[in-house]
Design brief:
Length: about 300
């Protein structure tokens, strides 16, 4: 008989490095209402996952990230925008098309198969609400860079309805989505054009503001320095990056090795977390928290680091 495991409130507390009492009620409700059961893949099933990953790595199907992909992202967010408008502004239409359902997940050094198709999406909901509740309660504004379809900002608004929110993205369609959301949902939110490869320093980020990114900086590859310089110069009170962490992976582990090779082939974010630690040693920033959580099929996509520039 296949053994089912389940992520409980205590499991989430362990993942976030807190106690059950430290999990916000909004997160507890999602955990209670969601199906977080899963099966740990072993033996032949685990080998089949490795084969899937290796076949992708050896194929020519993977697109390399970089500034040249801007048109692709414009096209993708335009598709979400059109579906959002055509379907009477249903929030479900804002889920990015690349989000896979009923897919294998990386967790605690192994592959697991969720029972529910929305396992990863619901996990991210809990992750967002936990982090936003913990770190955004004492700021005046929140800026998301690489905001995509604006769903992360809606989560912030759920917690802090009066908060001034800004969604920044290099895609015009993304900014239109954010501004449509602001009108249709009556949110205090504004979309602004911003290219992380070439930051516009005219963008005003107040010192009592919070900044966050979720799966956006991965597109920068090794070209993260300009954006990092921008963040340090603006000196917001808190910065949260939920991004792929190349440096934490162990090349002597097959499980991590395939993730390393996937990140390298896609030219995903590399060197950023190491740079943050270097800046902390130099006394230029403070790293407040770093946690590993879960990942998708190919790599650990949801580690998070919380830090702030030193004044």
């Amino acid at each position: 008989m296949v053994k089912h495991h389940n992520l409980s409130i205590n499991d989430f507390a362990d993942i976030f490095g807190t106690t059950a009492a430290g999990i916000p009620n909004i997160c507890k409700k999602i955990i209670k209402d969601s199906d977080f059961r899963y099966v740990i893949l072993t033996g032949k099933e685990r080998e089949e996952v490795f084969l899937r990953v290796f076949r992708i790595l050896l194929s020519d199907s993977l697109k390399v990230c970089g500034p040249h992909r801007k048109k692709d992202w414009e096209k993708g967010w335009t598709e979400n925008l059109d579906n959002f408008v055509q379907n009477k502004f249903k929030l479900e239409e804002l889920i990015p098309k690349f989000v896979r359902k009923k897919e294998v997940v990386r967790f605690r050094g192994g592959y697991i198969l969720p029972i529910d198709a929305n396992f990863e999406t619901n996990f991210v909901k809990v992750l967002r609400y936990y982090i936003f509740t913990k770190y955004f309660s004492n700021v005046s504004k929140v800026f998301e860079f690489g905001c995509g379809t604006g769903l992360n900002l809606i989560a912030v608004s759920d917690l802090f309805p009066e908060m001034k929110l800004f969604g920044l993205d290099w895609s015009k369609a993304s900014c239109k989505i954010v501004n449509e959301l602001s009108k249709k949902q009556n949110l205090n939110m504004k979309g602004l054009l911003f290219d992380m490869f070439s930051p516009d320093h005219k963008i005003e980020v107040d010192k009592d503001s919070a900044v966050f990114t979720i799966g956006a900086m991965e597109q920068l590859g090794t070209n993260y320095q300009s954006f990092l310089d921008f963040l340090i110069k603006k000196q917001p009170s808190i910065i949260i990056n939920i991004e792929v962490n190349y440096e934490m992976l162990n090349a002597d582990s097959l499980f991590d090795y395939v993730a390393i090779k996937y990140i390298e082939k896609r030219n995903y974010l590399c060197g950023y977390f190491e740079k943050l630690h270097e800046l902390e040693k130099q006394g230029k920033i403070d790293i407040i928290e770093y946690r590993e959580t879960v990942g998708g099929l190919y790599h650990n996509g949801y580690p998070y680091v919380v830090w702030k520039p030193k004044v």
